[in-house]
Amino acid sequence: MTRRIFLILLSAVLTASCMKNFDPETESETSGISLEVDVMPIVTGLPFYGTDDLIKDGEIPDEYKEIAKMRLTAYCYDCEGKLVGKQSVSRSSVKESVMFKFDHLNKKEEYVFVATGEFFELGEHGAEIDFWYPILTGTLDSFHLERTFGPGGMFDLFGCALTSARPQAQTVGLSLEHAGTYCHLIYEGCGNVSEIFISYSGLYMFSPTGNEKYCGLANHYNTMQTDSDILHQCLYIIPGNDGTTTLKCSISYKDGNADPLECDGTFHIEDKKPKQIKINCQNGTITCIE
After folding, report:
1. What single-letter DSSP state applies at residue 179?
2. How far is residue 250's CA from residue 17's CA, in Å, rounded to a whole number?
3. Residue 198 and residue 222 in contact, taking contact as beta carbons nearer than 8 Å
4. Where does 19-79 have alpha helices with state H?
5. pTM of the model
6. d(C-alpha 38, C-alpha 173), whole Å
7. Minimal CB count within 10 Å: which of 26, 36, 118, 239?
8. How far is CA 149 from CA 34, 131, 139, 153, 247, in A?
């Protein structure tokens, strides 16, 4: 080793020895933040007709695990609303809160965090079939979701939560809330009914941040045939900005000479509480029972 190299190394060692210990938590300009997302509020006692135990004790029962899973996603946006990062996990069990961590964030900056939860069905060869599809265009303002098909079924739900915080190596809790509600429809007096055509109004495009530009209302359609006197149907409906949904029914009868019965009703569902709606297929009366 030459004398010059030796002196350079010695100088570096002496300089390092004079430096105080670096504490990243107090002296670094960046830090991290952990999100603890509680999913249970949107799955406990799932009020879909006939499936009260769909998520029993936070576990999808074995008979459903090959059908669907729940996907939890966390999004981080900076103070200008630009997407910083996204993380996602899929679970058959949600009895424990799901943790997400975002590192290397500016301590002086306030960030917005969005958490979402929804089911997807398992298709052939492990394909994920979405009920709701996230549209990411890079900003908080334009982030929204679109319904991929409807009217859906027992796994058709959407939960979300939003908060803001400055990173201080802390854990922030988020509890998912329903974006919509389940409406349990009971069709009575169906003995002579051949077909029921129903439509309902609800959001097909939804913004977790409340941007009305990305809250699109549509009519969703479904046709049913029955041989029983009572028919049940369950719909997950996200109301429009006025907090209502409008149901329209066209009921056809086995007697080919009978004209179809047309009926409709508008109901407030902004409180997100499950509704029970009875439709009399003989006189067209529609009654909402909470």
Report:
1. S
2. 84
3. yes
4. 24-27, 62-65
5. 0.84
6. 8
7. 26
8. 33, 6, 25, 10, 18
